[in-house]
Amino acid sequence: MSDTGHDTPHVPGPSLWPIAFAIGVACLLLGLVISWIVAAVGAAIAVVAGFLWARDVTHDVRGEVPSIEPETRTVGDSASTGAIAAVPVDRPLPAYTRSRFLEASTLGVGAAIGAIVTLPVVGFMVLPAFTDVEEDEADLGPIENFPESEYVIASYLSNPSAGEVTRRTAFVRNNGQTDAGEPSFTILYSRCVHLGCPVQPNGPIDEEARQELENGVELRPVLAQSFGCPCHGGLYDAEGNRQAGPPVRSMDRYTFSIRNGRLVLGELYAVGNVSGTGASAQISRYPWSVPGTHVDGVEAWLYPIVPSQVTG
């Protein structure tokens, strides 16, 4: 009798495609931080290597099933004199073995776990760059309300229709005029560039000189020679440069314009460092970025994706 019960387990041969796939995924994740070109190359490597890996793994399953003729056995017929009858015997077709099932299941579960872990991280890194939440300009009133060489705490509503939830605070100093005869203002955003906590001016606030203007604007003079964050000890000088503590850059600033003798705030921008003071200051200006993000130096290469939203 023939032995048809022998089952030789499938042992896949060595392959370099899993290593290439892992390298592609690593390049993809690294590229999301460093460069879109690196991310594209990594994605291409991962797709090609993954396809070839799956092709190797499923090679035996994808193979054509050979055409097998039924086995026949001859048996004697006692009712016939010397007659021999052919009795067909079915031979089992190749089956999907247990080892192949376990291998495919392991790969599938691993891929699912990898997707669950990777997708939230990728979304956290990439999606903020495509979030575009812009704020309207803010009219802080006549420039006469801002004495030269003195800071004023300006509180305003970035969206008056939405109410107090949109209230923002800026530290405004009138620097006089530049050498070109243009008005100069230093306008610092009141959020710490460490974690976004509210920064406080280090100096007495003249509450008696407080002014309440239209559209929810409030102005309070302050004798500020520096600014500090009470949350984690960040310290900035009068130009917003970091002096101590965990902040990674200078305080953010507002662009501004003068319209009909009124000071109008524009968009925020990040500052690496400020050289000089007042109207003669040289500002290293960069696109606005979230707190805790470097904008210059070697560290800036780790943060190429700059979200555009502004949070209070």
Report the helical percentage: 10-25%
Question: Could you give the order of the helices and strands?
Answer: HHHEEHEEEEEEEEEEEEE
Q: Low-confidence segments, ≥5 residues, pLDDT <50? A: 307-312
Q: Quickly count the helices.
A: 4
Query: Number of DSSP strands?
Result: 15
CATH topology of the largest domain: Rieske Iron-sulfur Protein
With strands numbered from the N-terminus, the spatial order across the biggest sheet is 6-5-4-9-8
Q: Largest sheet, if any?
A: 5 strands, antiparallel
- Name the CATH architecture of the largest domain: 3-layer Sandwich
Measure the end-to-end span.
Answer: 84 Å
Would you give an account of this structure?
The chain has helices at residues 17-34, 36-57, 59-62, 98-126, and strands at residues 71-76, 84-89, 138-142, 151-157, 167-177, 183-189, 200-201, 211-212, 218-222, 226-228, 235-237, 242-244, 250-259, 262-275, 282-287. The strands form 4 sheets. It has a 5-stranded antiparallel beta sheet, with no helix packed on it. Strands 3, 13, 14 and 15 form a 4-stranded antiparallel beta sheet that branches. A 4-stranded antiparallel beta sheet has the order 7-10-11-12, with no helix packed on it. The protein has 312 residues and is α+β, with helices and mostly antiparallel strands. The protein starts with 16 loop residues before the first helix and ends in a 25-residue tail after the last strand. A hairpin with a 5-residue loop joins strand 5 (167-177) and strand 6. It folds into 2 domains: 17-64 and 96-130, no CATH class; 138-302, Rieske Iron-sulfur Protein (3-layer Sandwich), CATH 2.102.10.10. The model is unreliable at 307-312 (pLDDT under 50). Helix 1 runs antiparallel to helix 2. The chain has 4 helices and 15 strands.
